[in-house]
Design goal:
Order of helices and strands: EHEEHEEE
Number of strands: 6
Distance between the termini: 21 Å
Oligomer: single chain
Strand order of the largest sheet: 2-3-1-6
Helix content: 10-25%
């Protein structure tokens, strides 16, 4: 699994089921292929299978959840300082 950051979080009213639904529907993944999700105030992290095609990643970058574009990016590309909120 690979951890990704997405630009939607608690302040946008998102819940893990919203993220799973969007990724499964738009990315063609099953819910079982989606790993752990951590919600922060302004962003979240989600674990997805290693080796996602570039087409799927580009599609998920443009996917919207709760009025916010996911902008899916590998977690290593970001330096985030927020601490996760307890779910």
């Amino acid at each position: 699994m690979v951890r990704y950051n997405i630009d939607v979080g608690r302040s946008h009213g998102v819940m893990p089921k919203d993220i799973v639904g969007a990724i499964a529907n738009e990315g063609g993944l099953s819910a079982r292929q989606i790993g752990g999700i951590k919600l922060f105030d302004t962003f979240s992290t989600v674990e997805l299978p290693a080796g996602l095609s570039g087409d799927v990643v580009r599609l998920l970058q443009k996917t919207w959840v709760r009025g916010q574009k996911l902008n899916l990016q590998p977690a290593d590309d970001f330096k985030r300082s927020e601490k996760p909120k307890t779910v």
